[in-house]
Amino acid sequence: MALRFIALLLVCQLAGEAFVLWTGLPVPGPVLGMALLFAGLMLRGGVPEGLGRVVDTLLAHLSLLFVPAGVGVMLHIAMLREEWLAVTAALVLSTLLTLVVTGLVMTGLIRWLDSRQIGD
Questions:
Q1: Does residue 46 share a domain with residue 14?
Q2: For residue 11, which of 28, 36, 42 has the smallest C-alpha distance?
């Protein structure tokens, strides 16, 4: 049963990759695959119990997916030593920008929800 849901996740990723190759969109294939999965789950009206269990298991082992990124950082440590200032600035600025945008969106959504409740 779990194999069926793992296959579903992989088929969605494959469909996203194929769509990106076919259209040339500048979006990662797995992102489109995730959007396809989301659309399918919305049409279905929820997440099947088996899929929920498979995804929970994958999320429990999510840290393993960061190992390749860590290896890549160690592989390019010399370049990071040379460009540490630019990398640090990019990380700090992108983090601050993310916090500001998230705060603004959250504030806007709260105001929007409040105005809907007052109007009802």
A1: yes
A2: 36
Query: Does the predicted model carry a pTM greater than 0.90?
Result: no
Q: Given this model, what pLDDT does residue 120 score?
A: 66
d(CA 78, CA 37): 40
pLDDT in tens, 6-53: 999 999 999 999 999 999 999 999 999 999 999 999 999 999 999 999
Domain boundary among 60, 87, 104: 60
**Cα angle: 12, vertex 65, 30; to 5 degrees:** 25
Tell me, yes or no, whether 48 and 98 share the same domain: no
89 neighbors 97 (Cβ within 8 angstroms): no
- 46 shares a domain with 24: yes
Report the amino acid identity of residue 81. Answer: R
DSSP for 6-62?
Answer: HHHHHHHHHHHHHHHHHH--SS-HHHHHHHHHHHHHHHHTS--HHHHHHHHHHHHTG
Residue 106: which domain range?
69-120
**Position 120: which residue type?**
D
